[in-house]
Amino acid sequence: MELGIKGRWAVVCAASKGLGKGCAMALAQEGVNLVINARNSETLVTTAQQLKALNPGIDVVTVAGDIGDTQVRAAILAACPQVDILINNNGGPPPGDFRDWSRTDWLKALEANMITPIELIKATVDGMSERGFGRVVNITSGAVKAPIEVLGLSNGARSGLTGFIAGLSRQPQLVSRNVTINNLLPGPFETERLESALASEANISGHSLKDVTEKRLSGVPAGRFGTAEEFGAFCAFICSQHAGYMTGQNFLLDGGSYPGTF
């Protein structure tokens, strides 16, 4: 299927590895020019080279730094001729017991996983509306629907973003102008984030990492963890010209782990 987004410009946050990189790769293969961001400049440059190798015809610009930093966000936006597609993504806060978290811990989580994506959306959606095309995809977490006990900081901050998007995405001045905003809720994917969460759970529970991993995998009807490539392909479709009638949705990609109907 031709997605109809060749030549567009996309900003992809936290794109040097994991799910963000999967999204950047899928967009690159569709001919989308990219401004990619991550904290580690060396890893980011390597990723940019890989993206160019996938499609030599696209432009790939790198802006290293913490996306939560105001100046870094300004540099990203300045590097992009026009933001047609925005992929909001950021590393989640650390796992743990809520009894150990301070007010500062909560504010950091909210800044990284709620306020930062809102600031980027605020800076870009009106331009998208004026041009008659825009796609915003927020990578949140399956924990928004099925909270994970040790990820309380993430559960709270990402749920806050989800509630905000539910209202914003339905504003007539956006969706009637072909600007959509949707959320992707990943379940267990083969990423460093999952490895960290499993290791933390093993440490807290006293069980072996192998046992914790097998237990987590047993709850996935697909019988495996997801891949960044299939996640990216789904993201690319949401960003396509075919997805203009779909907004305000939370797409759970979890191999069937969530047992509910709604």
Automatic annotation (TrEMBL):
Pfam families: adh_short_C2. Belongs to the short-chain dehydrogenases/reductases (SDR) family. SUPFAM superfamilies: NAD(P)-binding Rossmann-fold domains. PANTHER family: 3-OXOACYL-(ACYL-CARRIER-PROTEIN) REDUCTASE, NADPH-DEPENDENT REDUCTASE BACG. Signal peptide: none annotated. This is SDR family oxidoreductase. Gene3D superfamilies: NAD(P)-binding Rossmann-like Domain.
